[in-house]
Amino acid sequence: MVIIGDHKQIVIPHLNRTKHDPARLSGVRLLHTHLENQPINDEDLMDLIFLRLDSIEVLTVSAQGFPISYSCAHILPTGGKNNLYEIYPLCPWDKVDFNPLATAKNLEKELERISKSASPTIREKHALLISVSTESKKVQENSLKELEALAKTAGLKVSGYFIQRVQKINPSHILGKGKLAELEIIALQKGASILIFDCELSPSQLRNLTNITERKVIDRTQLILDIFAQHAKSKAGQLQVEMAQLKYTLPRLIKQNRAFSRLAGGIGGRGPGETKLEIDRRKIRERINKIKKELDKIKRQRQTARNLRERSQIPIVALVGYTNVGKSTLLNTLTQSKVLVADKLFATLDPTSKKMRYPKNKEIIFTDTVGFIAHLPNDLKQAFSATLEELRPASLLLHVADASHPRLENQVNAVNEILKELNLENKTTLLILNKWDKLTADQQQQLKNKYPAAFPTSALNKFGLDRLTQEILKKLF
């Protein structure tokens, strides 16, 4: 392919890459002329990285068009942050000792070797987790640990991390071009096909990022929505997740947006025309309205069931807490039931209610609800309002926390914030420090001092449940 530019620049058209493996180069090399005696510049290097070129080569020419000198560059499969590529200095054009085809072949062999050593099974989807924030590095690292748990729950293999603390978030690309180039090289070195940002990307940021990388770009919100879609079993749960996904997708549905073609569902296809685009938007809005009506119907049915329970005057105890802290296990132990239990985030989404009879004809209905998480997407909160309505008639909330989690305090605070947003902060609440058996004696004492009113328990071995049950009966009767 021959491209003609002006004395300042050339415009490279969109290249249909022949190789789509994230651990391989594009199969394309670029040789271009510099009309002055200039070596390879930053713009050349950005093209090398973002187009994933086999190599970039420069031939300087005289005013008469005769060749003078030659230089080239290629990425390095290893080398870390400060050594992303190798640049060969300018030399006389007729004394060049560089074989671009052999170099590209050797680079791909090394990239493939690194990719295979990083992943036991090549078919696994590998993700690079990215944090760009004004927060401290420690806070970012802790947040990425939770993002890693989310990625694993979604069935992804995490192959690396990228942390960047900034004074101000870049509104168009979230990162500057130099850092994006570094990110692209790290993803190539790690064999990552998916970039997951630990924040919610704006529609313009998502569009701009996918315009400069061939990798799939998703954010924390998309990842959570994907997990909810995998775990939703009931009709209500599936409708709630679908509505949240459609609301997320609608502002990101734009003309010729490669980002959108990679979203779950793929509505609209790749690069729809203007008429098709409007049709798709209308279809999404119509579907959202239809789902809202169906959810309102489910809400009314649940309200009827709640009214019946209230008329029976049986008190309701609702279990709330961060995701994966053991709420379902505790419900099973307290009520001798068999609700699904899994060591995953958001393993259960649908509310489960179980009736329990105690001595002296005392009955209690225990209700398990969807787990909370920090920065829960607003669309998801709104979609699951029907589920969270189960908390309103509760006489008592059991706030279950994972005592062994290194971010226990953050999780407790996050749940309290969400309860406040739901106007439930004034409900009578018991804090339960579950998984107490995983702590050392010193750690247990520290938590007793910090949360003196909390109830230490272990849902698996039933430690502390007798005392907890007595306190529940005391609060209710």
The fraction of residues in strands falls at 15-25%
Query: What is the structural class?
Result: alpha/beta
Shape: elongated
Helical residues, percent:
25-40%
| Spatial arrangement of strands, main beta sheet | 10-11-9-12-13-14
Total count of helical runs of at least 4 residues: 14
Tally of strands:
14
Description:
40% of the residues lie in helices and 18% in strands. It is built from 14 helices and 14 strands. The strands form three sheets. It has a six-stranded mixed β-sheet with strand order 10-11-9-12-13-14, with helices on both faces. Strand 5, helix 3 (137-153) and strand 6 (157-165) form a beta-alpha-beta unit. The longest helix is centred in the middle third of the chain and has 38 residues, at 274-311.
Question: What descriptive keywords fit this protein?
Answer:
four-stranded mixed β-sheet, alpha/beta, 14 helices, 477 residues
Question: How is the secondary structure organized here?
Answer:
Elements: E1 30-34, H1 42-50, E2 56-61, E3 67-75, E4 85-92, H2 100-118, E5 126-133, H3 137-153, E6 157-165, H4 177-190, E7 194-197, H5 203-212, E8 216-219, H6 220-231, H7 235-249, H8 274-311, E9 316-321, H9 327-335, E10 352-358, E11 362-368, H10 378-383, H11 385-388, E12 396-402, H12 408-421, E13 429-434, H13 441-450, E14 455-456, H14 465-476
Parallel strand pairs: 1-2, 5-6, 5-7, 7-8, 9-11, 9-12, 12-13, 13-14
Antiparallel strand pairs: 2-3, 3-4, 10-11
Helix pairs in contact: 3-6, 6-7, 7-8
